[in-house]
Every structure is written in C-alpha cells, then in structure tokens.
Amino acid sequence: MVSAAPAPARPGPPGRPAGDVTVEAAPGVWVAWARTAAVSEHPADLADVRGRPRWRRRQSLAARGLLRALLAEVCPGTEGVALSADVRGRPALQGLPALGVSLSHDGPSGTSGDLGGDLVAAAVAPGRRVGVDVQLPPGPDVPAGLVRRCLRERAGELSSLPAGRRALEFAWVWTVQEACVKADGTGIAGRPWSLDIPVRPGTGTLGDLTWIALRHLSVHPVSCAFGDLRAR
Q1: What local confidence, expressed as pLDDT, does residue 111 receive?
Q2: Which DSSP letter does residue 96 get?
Q3: Hey, which residues does 23 pair with through a beta bridge?
Q4: Taking the alpha carbons of 56, 71, 14, 28 in that order, is the dihedral positive or negative?
Q5: Under 8 Å between Cβ of 224 and 123
C-alpha cells in the first residue's frame, strides 16, 4: 500500500468546458475528467475515428479534446502533436515516447450527438507509463457471474452491499483494473479482471505500478495507475 495522495481537485482553466476537474494524482501525474468536453478537431484525430459509429466518434474525440487541453496546461507545446497507438491500442504522442498519456471514455451507445450522458478522462505523466479509466456503474446492479470473475474470493464482500452501492463499487474496482493494464501497455490481453483489487479501492501497488482510485475527488469512478518507463 502506498501513501500517495492527490492534490485537491480544482476546476479546469477558463478555456476548458464546465464540469471539468484536474488533479495532480501524484507528483508529475496529471488526471482530468469531465461529463462535457470540447471534441478534438485535430486532423489526425478526425482521421483516426473516421468510419466508427457516431456515438463512438463523439466519445473518442471528446476524450482526445480533453487530453489536448490537459497537455496544453501541463506540457505546453505538445498539445498539437499527433497521437498514435500500438498494436494493443496504447496511445502515444508521435516522437515523444517518454511522455506518458492515456485516454478513457464511457457512456451510452446510440446515435445521439449529445455528450451529456458520457464521461471522459485523460492522463499525462512525463517520464512515466500511465493509465486512466472512467466507468459509469453498469446499471442498477451487477450480474453475479461478473462479480465472481472480477473479484473472485472478494466477491462475497461486494455481493453483501445493497444493489446500487454494489454496482458503484464494482465500477470503482474495474477502473483500477483497467487503469493498471493500460499503464502496463497490455490492454485487454493483460486480463484486467484477473488483477487482485480490493472492494472500496483507495491506493495500492501492483507489480511495479502504483494505482490510485480518485474516489474522494469524484462522484464518478475514475482511477489512474503509473510506473517508471521500461528500457526498450
């Protein structure tokens, strides 16, 4: 267990949309999240999402827009650099492999152009690997099989909670699991559901990663994970 504690959350700078929150989760690890965000108009971002369903384009461009706003604040001059992704989907700024970045979005699928039901997040960590994840609770309750798969011997503790609370705490666990595999660069191949994360997660370590659930700063499940760069 670690003692890392995020700095107090603060509203984003005036150029950011209302509802955005930015926090330095650990020294040099910045996380921002929002229920509304200006979509990216970067040509490379628009090209990357071409052909996707409208709702997925909306979410992806909102997350990228938030990332570029965060880069402008904490790493000025990098916000215009094109994003690329490796074979497992891990994002990186082209030509800047040591500048860790991560994106996340969640929300309803559908054809609506309204971002109001979506939640997006971004993380920036110079000189580190970083992962961020946001989740909306999966409905009023969580299927028992999903709880067992993701929490195994801890499933009973989660199942003892009232249904609404159970769904929320499950979402918190899943954000930590997802943030860790994103920071590790393994994505879904890293089997996030197999990672041992406690119910009501706070902060902790997993291998060479540190993870933080930002539960005292956000009503929506948002978590990040980070670690030192690995030699290539």
Answers
A1: 43
A2: B
A3: 31
A4: positive
A5: yes
